[in-house]
Amino acid sequence: MHLTALLTALFLASPLLASPASAQVRLVDAGIICPRESEGEFVDAPGTESGFIRRIRQGLAFDLPDRTVPTMDQLSFGFRTTLKAGAATTPVTVVVTHPPMGERGIEREEWTDVMTPDASNLNLFTFEMDYEKVPGPWTFSIEIDGQPIVTVPFEVTETENQGRVERACFQFMS
């Protein structure tokens, strides 16, 4: 499994939390990225099924703002957050929860990241292995000191929304 994490940096602010850091974080966008060749370095992430993530190059944009994700090969989905300008650099934990996956039945995967002002963070999951294609509710979140600051739900399905995604991604599919 490859969790795809991109540090391109602008983060989400949740007015419901009292932490000063949480007031500096905000959601920019979320959705689906069509299948493309993944570029980026592998980084150790022991809190994931595979034990690593791929830190993606900058510049990827969401092709669809959808939160209903079909289990298509190489399809990516996730969210982009930012840290407000002038805020202090902030260590965060990126968390992805999903139905049981892999031989160990993993339901929570996480890795650490550092958010910096004036930069966006793109955190993605890409379906690269068959065992990763687990239908059901998925959630991406940013946590600071164990508290969720930004949470974005998705629904992964075997076929729902596949036609719309295929039409949007036609140029990227072989």
From TrEMBL:
Signal sequence coordinates: 1-23
DUF3859 domain sequence ranges: 24-156
Name used for this protein in its record: DUF3859 domain-containing protein
Annotated InterPro entries: DUF3859
Record bears the keyword Signal: yes
Organism, scientific name: Jannaschia faecimaris
Keyword Coiled coil: no
Keyword annotations from UniProtKB, A to Z: Signal
Pfam families: DUF3859
Highest taxon above the source species: Bacteria
